[in-house]
Amino acid sequence: MSPVSSYRTRVKICGLTRAEDIDAAVAAGADALGFVMWPGSPRALDLERLAALTARVPAFVTRVGLFVDQSPAFIRACEAHLDLVQFHGDEAPAECCEATRPWVKALRMRDDIDLARAAHDYAAARGLLLDAYKPGVPGGTGETFDWGRIPASLEKPVILAGGLDASNVGEAVRMVHPYAVDVSGGVEQAKGIKDPDKIRAFVRQVFLAQE
Questions:
Q1: Per-domain residue ranges of the chain
Q2: In a designed cystine with 122, which of 105, 114, 180, 200 is the match (CB 3.0 to 4.6 A)?
């Protein structure tokens, strides 16, 4: 059993591109905000926009940057505006350890994945983000995976992602008891445009599932 399994489930709202969406997520009670720095995403930011948006985030809300097999130099430039780095590509453990901020590693749930081995290999990670697997897509698939595949004995905090929204996140929290849940498309009006009502509903369902 993970040493943090008894903690409440945190909420990360990812793919933020607008100041008003940051405000809505913070007001709803989000613990972390995600900023996509991979140019292949419709939610991608450049460094200037990252600096402007993260400056709006208040104390005690974690600013997370998402990267996909990008250069250490670019990641270091972004880290001045971040509290946590999320590696969402095929980065080896040694590459992740080049980060100057704490980091988490995203893993796509392929049929043959060995989560215990991954937890060992990425021992320096602060957590493992588990996402649905879709060939050629590093994340943001909008699809769920079989949560029963996650071993209760995994020795890393689990951040659950993949197809979550207000209709299913309560069930996910009750079944998996993850350290955190991560949502992007499930709280959007359109890609990169969040819906404040959906954000509030999502966070509320996470809280209700733990009462």
A1: 10-208
A2: 105
Question: Residue 67 half-sphere exposure, CB side, CA atoms within 13 Å?
Answer: 27
What CATH number belongs to 10-208?
3.20.20.70
pTM (two decimals): 0.93
* Cα within 13 Å of Cα(162), Cβ side: 23
Closest CA relative to residue 122, chosen from 86, 151, 152, 149: 86
Exposure string (b/e) for 101-125, b if CB count within 10 Å is 16 or more? bebbbbbbbeeeeebeebbeebeeb
Catalytic residue numbers read 14, 131
List pLDDT tens digits, range 132-170. Answer: 987 666 656 678 999 999 998 898 999 999 999 999 999
